[in-house]
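seq as requested:
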Amino acid sequence: MKINTWSITTIWVFAFTILLANITKVLADGRVPNTREEITLTYAPLVRKAAPAVVNIYTKKIVRARQAVPLFNDPFFRQFFGNQFGLDLGRPRKHRQNSLGSGVIVNATGLVVTNKHVIEGADQIRVVLTDRREFEAEVLVTDNKTDLAILSLTTDGEKMPFLKLRDSDDLAVGDLVLAIGNPFGVGQTVTSGIVSALARTRIGGSDFNAFIQTDAAINPGNSGGALIAMDGRLVGVNTAIFSKSGGSHGVGFAIPSNMVRAVLRGVANNGKLVRPWLGASGQVVDFDIANSLNLQRPGGVLINVIHHRGPAKLAGLEVGDVVLAVNGHDIIDIPTLNHRIATLPVGETAILRVWRHGSIRALPVHLEAAPEIPRNNRTFLKGEQPLAGATVVNLSPALSEEIGIDPFLEGVFILRLLRGSNASRMKFRIGDIVREINGQKIKTVSQLLNQLQNPTNRWQIFILRDGTTRKMLIER
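struct tokens:
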């Protein structure tokens, strides 16, 4: 069979003309690509839509540093030479430290989401948009457990460009994503990649995040920037990288948008972040535990402690139960369980899929905020006793959640220490939990006060510090 070369050429020219016309139409309309063919052509329309809502964050703080030469701090040297060298010998010197990061505007009034570590300790925060407009920013809330911070821009009523949040649970490994931020301070930069993995836990110091992993290049300065999906909506806030050199090696992590939404929801509570509390904890089900419980495969959390006032107790959860899923989402470890609970609103009912005695059952749990029981009873201790100068409070699930310690701990917590006070000289520390004084168990501030009033010349005090019980013997 003889092939007509001219006809084949004509067909190819015709097809290319149609393709070129489609490209021209997509670029002229400035719309987001919707089909596979359009996506492979350009990300430009998507970037034009999203980039104005991604901002640069510049922070300033005053830091104090002592002279680098130890000799200048020596009293003998200062007695004879004073300040004739103009070095302010021995005195801390102040200097201004600047840093930068990225952020995302998430509503038209100027609410900005970024990483907590981007604005940590800042005395001044300025936010710069892609059109070079600058705004002062105020910190509304910071959250240690998610490394998120919410800022409010002073816009005088001016409407801001913003990104809508997408349900991050809709993401799948292999989905295309774009990372937008300000790496190394060079200016706004866009990188592309895919979702490499989901629900990555134990990244950094976060307790509640199940991170999105991506190979889109993320570098220093990208922190707080946007990870967007192909519909132009926010699916994550870039937060960390795995790197041995400080640069991108294709392993970056973003906080899922559902966690961002949960923190934003908490801002409404007078600037104080309130999240739901399950009131139960446990351990990961490994291969051996799975075999002992006749589970088909490892996974889930074996419950070994339940708070007597928590929602889990009220719902009928028992020690020995294995939580396999929350609202249909599989639980692989404790951070995943914490993440799933933390992303739900207070007052909502979560459905736990539980393995108990060889069968699976569904438990509805009405989620509540951690209770402040007992009341904190904040007290500054005075008098002639070892703890004078300490500010103490009653531990409660609410306080423990706020300061980031185990919510199942009980006792009297040292919140502040006055410098030079008895408590400071006796080597007590902020964060110590007083458990016992002279043989008397201490669970509340009232019990502590009563025990400190007993006259004695010898004190035996048991405290919990960094998970270890310590005995302190103090004599007058």
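The CA atoms of residues 3 and 235 lie 52 Å apart.
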